[in-house]
Fold this protein.
Amino acid sequence: MGIRVDFLIKHLRPADIDAWAAICKPRGQGTLNQWLLDSLAMSQQDIDAVFNDWAKLALVDINDPNNQAIFVKAAQEISQLRWKSLYDTNYSSIMFFTEPLIKELSYVASSQTGDFEFDPSETIPLVVTINQLGQAPSVQRGVAGASLKADAQGNCYHFYGLINATYAMTAKQSPEQIRRASLSTSFAEQVFNRASEDATRKSVETFFGIRPKAVATLTALTGAAPSADSLNALLNNVGTAPGSSTTVTVPAAPANGDLTLVQNVQTLDSYIATLTALVMYNNHPAPYDLSDKTQAAQFVTDLANARNFVVTGGTVKAVPMYLPMGEATTQTLNKSTTSADLHLDLLTALFGALNLPSSVLTELDGILTEISDSLKNLQLSYQDQTQTLNHFVSFYYLTPVEGTNPPINQMNVEFIYLQLAQSSWKASVGKSSVSHFTLDMTTTRTTATMSAGIVAANTSSIVSSLMQLTGNDATQIANMTKVKGVQT
């Protein structure tokens, strides 16, 4: 039916009783019932018992947040069975599909071979990701779709990751602009992945003294790949014209494994920064002249938007693997303030919910001042007076894993896409410390927990790509993009 049964077993469950009927009622060749009889040698009585359990779950209201624990428990049981009987992986994602979603995936997959994006007409109501790394389950609602793979017969059989419904579009972004952003991000990921392959090939050829044969180039495969100088110019500009910023908490008395987590952040953020630079280059190959006020403003906006799309746009398949994300929440702030109170208002809006120690807030205030001063020095000039000053914040912080003794920490991250009204920015620069003005901004926040084991397992490949593309390792790129550490 366009969906292989082993894929259904691993990744799909009915979200309601209509979906249950579509999955469990059919009999005969190619059905789930027949596969269980033939492949797992289950008796019909046992199959009926399993289907009855699925029906009980399908009758639970999936849209009621009070029932979430029921679906998480079901996903945990499914994952444990999958790891025991099918494939032992670090992660297991269970998507709860309605009947229309099942029919749409079957239809879409039947015309596909290889990788494809399943971007259905309705959102996936619930996705639960269970892991074997000691982290809490990830629960996402209203997911936009998934990155999948179909076999030669047009049957969906492999799950890469989710297309997260967390990307925040600015008011001026049309569907065509979103399409181009998605293409640019796909270009960036292809270039990055091929760079690692090229680095490995060169290493093997050098070691064994093999004379290299002609191979397909990056340009032939993915379009015009940038030079290392072009990428490094973009990365260096991040500190001068900060459209994004990354901060990580570093404990003064680290618990076991903490410093490795911090080092993983450095690797992961350098990966994201380089993908962002590739996206920016694809959209704007000519160098930005930051001495030009209009181009400086454009760079800041392009950087924030590209980084937001790389992290939350759902196009980069590896991002959900490294950073399983929750739902995005958007808030609008419109309040009277003064230049003297502005930093406190911003810090409260961005980090107030995290209950950070005052010492950390003081350090964050210093970072905010540095960013603000850098932007003021550029004297940004916008051609469109309705355009917002955008900034993308990545704030990584350690939290204890519940029930561990001695305590073991995990690395959480708050991704915050900030859109500040141009009038508020101009007022904050031009007003005296006691004059009141309106702080008008929108923040879109997405929380994730870093999959430390997966990042660590892929560090060598990531660093190989970084070196191949830029000539710099993760530490050097983190210095270029001004990644900051605050002590806790």
